[in-house]
Design brief:
It is a single chain. This protein is of the alpha/beta class. The chain has a single domain, classed as 3-Layer(aba) Sandwich (Rossmann fold), CATH 3.40.50. The chain is 36% helix and 30% strand. Helix 4 packs across helix 5 and helix 5 packs parallel to helix 6. It is globular, with a radius of gyration of 18 Å.
Length: 231
């Protein structure tokens, strides 16, 4: 089997929202194992690119292709992309009253486990993995019975995102300003997690120099007005 050097390849990608073109002929690649920083000012197209990679339907690809792990996913839906190993930590995550953290994490972990192995994830295996991840992140057990993000602070939401990240172990994680709303301690925890997850490739957005320096990005791509800046 041919070895894949780039987990993500974007080829001549143009994207529109309604009648307006937001991304213009974007070509870039993300190497396997990279900690790749997507930089640029607000409004430069970073979040649009992230949303397009994850498969958000409102953004229409007018030309180009997205290749993930050697597979063309240009026309795949958001669920398939997630199961293939694309994790997205968005800036604004919804509150879901009535859906507990424990139930959400179990369904998410079980879906990924079955897709990757063809077998069901036992409750014992899930609980063992959850306990290990929870201890790593110092997350109180009481969180597990709370509704998703209801009453959670910005920093708590980021730690919950890290918990899901560790449990699902994605091939590729896109983190859109994971430092936003997080205090210095949580930012350090996020940076440490990113550096320690060697089997996951990261594409992240951040405007904070101190946070970016903690992650030590291996590569940087800068957008401006929906185009890649050539330095």
């Amino acid at each position: 089997m041919k070895k894949i050097n780039n987990i993500l390849e974007i080829k001549n990608l143009s994207v529109a929202l309604g009648e307006k073109t937001l991304l213009h002929d974007i070509s870039m690649s993300v190497k396997c194992g990279a900690r790749h920083l997507l930089a640029g000012k607000n409004g430069s197209g970073k979040s649009t690119l992230v949303s397009t990679i994850m498969g958000t339907e409102e953004y229409k690809i007018t030309s180009g292709n997205i290749i993930f792990d050697g597979r063309d996913i240009t026309n795949e839906n958001i669920t398939t992309r997630a199961l293939l190993g694309i994790f997205v930590g968005a800036q604004n995550v919804p509150e879901i009253p009535g859906l507990t953290v424990l139930s959400f994490l179990k369904h998410s972990a079980a879906a990924h486990h079955h897709f990757n192995t063809g077998r069901d994830l036992s409750m014992g295996e899930f609980l063992a993995n959850l306990e290990s991840a929870r201890n790593t992140l110092n997350i109180p057990k009481e969180w597990l019975n709370r509704s998703i993000n209801v009453g959670f602070s910005g920093g708590e939401r980021k730690r919950l995102m890290l918990l899901r990240l560790i449990l699902t172990k994605p091939k590729f994680a896109i983190l859109d300003e994971p430092d936003s709303g997080a205090d210095a301690t949580t930012q350090k925890q996020i940076a440490n997690t990113i550096r320690e997850m060697n089997d996951t490739t990261f594409l992240f957005i951040s405007h904070q120099k101190n946070f970016t320096e903690q992650i030590e990005p291996t590569d940087i791509t800068t957008l401006s007005d929906g185009k890649i800046m050539i330095e």
